[in-house]
Every structure is written in structure tokens, then in C-alpha cells.
Write a structure and sequence with these properties.
mainly beta, Metal Binding Protein, Guanine Nucleotide Exchange Factor, Chain A, seven-stranded mixed sheet, binds zinc ion
Length: 148
Amino acid sequence: MTRGIEGGCRCGAVRYRLALDALPRSYACHCLDCQTWSGSAFSQQVVIAESAFTVTGPIALYELTSPSGRISRQRVCATCHTRIYNTNSVRPGLVVVRAGTLDRSDQLHVVAHIWAKRKQPWLVIADDVPRWPEAPPPEELLATLEHP
Ligand SMILES: [Zn+2]
Ligand SMILES: [Zn+2]
């Protein structure tokens, strides 16, 4: 029996699988970095244990050290440069996947919004969806993704 939730890049060279039975819940980050990096209004992401994530294909790495010393490792398709996922030294063991690369991205729910103070003014967040003006403590966000 095949199990898993799959996704990949625009050109098809990179494919990945999440060892889950159902789609994970996603969140939106409206920070300026995510707007710039996605070329869009926000970045939609899911968080998964690194042990439940497998990827194949040509991956290029972009490593970025923040002023506070956190190391973000961003992975893109080396052929078409689609952003796929990243890890961060402050969240060992976790992978943050760009949710729009999931094959079933049309079935995702956004259950939390972070950096809401930077959101585009036309974007209206429903009253019953949790939001934080900036970045919440990671454990708060993870708890919301598990139990919205
Ligand atoms: Zn590609
Ligand atoms: Zn962001």
C-alpha cells in the first residue's frame, strides 16, 4: 500500500513525499522576507518532521545566517529554481515545506497567519482563524497547526 502526500517543483525534476495519511494543515507568513522571496503576498507553508520527509532530484542549497546567528538552509530545484523547503538551526528535526508545491495544494487549509501586521491590505483574514502580528513562539504555531 502506498502512503504519503507528494509534491514537487515546476519542471518535475524534484519530487518529495511526506509520510502522512492526510494533508497537513498549513499557515501563511506575511513577513516582508516571505513576500520578497515568494514574489507574492505571503508564503504558505507546512511543517513536518525531517524523518517523515523524503526528496529526490537535483537540489540546490542557499544558506543564510541571520544577524542573531540562526542558520536557514533553503532548498530549491537546481533546474527550475522552485523553492521547495528549508530547515533552520533553531528548529532541528523540522522541515518547512512551501505548501504550494504539494500536488494537492488545492485541498489545503490555512489555519494560522503570522506576521499579520505586514499582510497586504486587500487580504482579509477570517475572524475565527488564529493570527499573530509577528512571529509567534514556534511551539505556539506548531500547536495551532496540530489542533486549530
Ligand atoms: Zn524543477
Ligand atoms: Zn515570513
